[in-house]
Amino acid sequence: MAINELRSVSTFIKAAELGSLRRAAQDLHISPQAASKALAQLEKHLGVRLFHRTTRVMSLTDEGQRLLEDVEPAILGVQRALDKAKTSKDDFSGSLRITGPRTTFQAILWPLIEEFCDRYPNIQPDVLLEDRVGNWVEDRVDVGFRLGPSPHEGVIARKLFPLQMLICGSPRYFERHGVPTTLTSLSTHRCSVFRHPATGKLAPWHVKLDGQLIEQPVVPAIISNDEVLELHAVLSGKVLGQLAGPTAAPYIRSGQLIPVLIDYMPEIASYFVFYGSRKSQPARVRAFVALALERLADNPDYQLTSTELVQARRALPKLIRSLKIKQP
Q: Domains of the chain (ranges plus CATH)?
């Protein structure tokens, strides 16, 4: 139904209800001239007279009465639907569509979703994790997480934390294969290389040299498109790996992994949370974004300080000696 026809029918119903076109105009927040024009358009479109009019009174004709009985339930249903849509943005219920990268982000996102579900049990998170950058409009995304700036226009971006890339290995690996002390010495080491799930391409190692981010060639001993498998390979002592900060940080803090070549550690990008216009966002979206900023923005759990990195590296000789003592 065209919008002028909807206005005409709404004007007709309100005039029949109030018995006055002037009062109908006031109730609908339009001018009396606009109300009169809308009613005249409807009568012309239908080819019938809907009201008997005098200077003081207007009453329905038989045709007007039949039309009122036919259209009033439908128009009231439309109005209820519009009112519901208008107020639903303030409801803490319904679906919440969240997207983000699968690699490095699963372990970060789950505690956030778990806490959000505890706070708002009537909201259903609908989570899509994939390493490709999809079309957030077509995918009906409410909140998105991404490494680096958004490729989409019209979204608001808030920075969360930078992503460190740490070259690290287990004490067992260093006891067997030695410790690389220069970038060139990496060529003699067994290294893990990540195959990007979205493109199928091998992801190069990156290092920071003279303030610039450059690619560091390595010879892969293990290739995987799964971050968890790569982590297990590094923890087992089979290979060195360049792991993301959120993945490696808890194992470095526990002494299971040791960072090396820390002077060359890069921060390749930062994680951001993205969402649409602040004015039109439903309450559930605003609440989730607020929680994400509260829990993730500059969270020290996902980053290692320079002091932590130096202390972890200094602990390596002692760890290696203890391994040698334990050997039969």
A: 3-88 (1.10.10.10), 97-161+280-299 (3.40.190.10), 163-269+302-326 (3.40.190.10)
